[in-house]
Write a structure and sequence with these properties.
alpha+beta, 5-stranded antiparallel β-sheet, 55% helix, 14 strands, 12 helices, 5-stranded mixed β-sheet, elongated
Length: 509
Amino acid sequence: MRTRRHATVQLLGLAAVATLTVVYTSVLHIQNAAIVSTTFLLVVLLVAASSTLVAAIVTSLVAMLSFNFFFLPPVRTLTVADPQNWVALGAFLVVSVVASNLSARARTRADEAQARRAELARLYDLSRDVLLTEDSREGIVAVARAIARRFDLAFAALALPGGGGAWDIVNAGTRALALPEAALAEALDTARQRLEFDAEARTYAGHRPLRIDDQQIHLVPLRVGTRPIGLLATERGHVDAGTLDAIAGLAALAVERVQMLEERRKAAHTRQSEALKTTLLASIGHDLRTPLTAIRVGAENLRSGDLPPDEREAQASIVLSEVARLDRLFQNLLDMARLDAGAVAAERRRTHPSEIVEAARAQAAPALLGHRVEVEEGGEVAVRVDPRLTAAALAHVLENAAQYAPVGTAIHVTTRIDADTLELSVHDEGPGVPPEDLPRIFERFYRGAGGDRRPSGTGMGLWIARGLLAAQGGHIWADNRAGGGARFTMRVPVGEALAPEGEERHDRT
């Protein structure tokens, strides 16, 4: 494109010289050498300002020949009779060439400055791409693609040494080439041995040419400080070596950042796993100790033959109650493990909201002793949900309400059905949820502000409820009622159109 533009300027310059010659000789009949040489010199300067030095010199030679042939006596010959005209002709040629050289040099420097500015803009855009890299292999792939895109490279690749002498090579661009691992290893070893800066080339040591098939490749070390961590491979000659060093430096920072973020993520996961194990052991140890102690004491009392029948019945009831409590704890642990493994699958079938509420009340019966459960049904029609998961989630919410609400108060359950959702709401007459606990109340093992004062809670119930609902596309949230008490609302998609009210019910969960 640029070559075509220069050729066009060259032709326009020659045409301008020819046009001026015709106008001066045939129309205006001007024979003043000063006027002619000045206008010809102006054409030469315009060509030099907008094209190459070669084009300006060619234009100046043509202008000199035209000036000599048509305007210096004897006219229409290339002979110069007057020695003064030789001086004028030589001065015209020297001034044309020098002026053309100066103009072309200034334009070349301007083009170089514009190219440098474009390179800086591309490097800035690439640095912004580096900051957006993620903590995964896809982040390195994105950096390689950004290099190829920002600098219009048909081929670009990041080569990182792996374990056992293998290389992890990420290709980008429109052309894929197989980089020989032996050449990569040799180039990386050379970069490790030398660290020198060539001020003239603006590059560090370690650059290496490589030929693959018919393609010339340039290998540049990726350095973090003075330590090479890999290689950048690009097509040779498209970008100058100094810019390639800057690109390699940004790519090295991106690789280092991705690796650092990945290590930090793994460390955070490890810390979280250790904290989870510690919390789980502490919670289970605490919640196992109380029922096991009660069972042991009850069993020892039952062994005594001096207990009256009513006392033996009371001790047996305590043992059975604590056994049920242990069974519930182990069921929670099993549910938690299944949720972590993603092994909870919804099995939808047509059921009625009242059946779900009754099944949940039966599961939470030991915790609901001392509380009234008041149910307000918003329509007794069949819906298509998983009654087992929904009832289990509701049972956990009822147990939580019974745990924090004062003994003797009522727990209210409300059901409501709209076009595609079953909504179950539970609210109690307790103190409510502290505002600072609302964002974290469904986290695993989080017991809230009252957790230390209620040792029977494990902090698993609400987290399990949320997981059971999520398995069938539902969700749960908590808030505080204006009249006092906490409210938990569950919404479950019904899966299909509602059934008529007179439809026969299925067996209860």
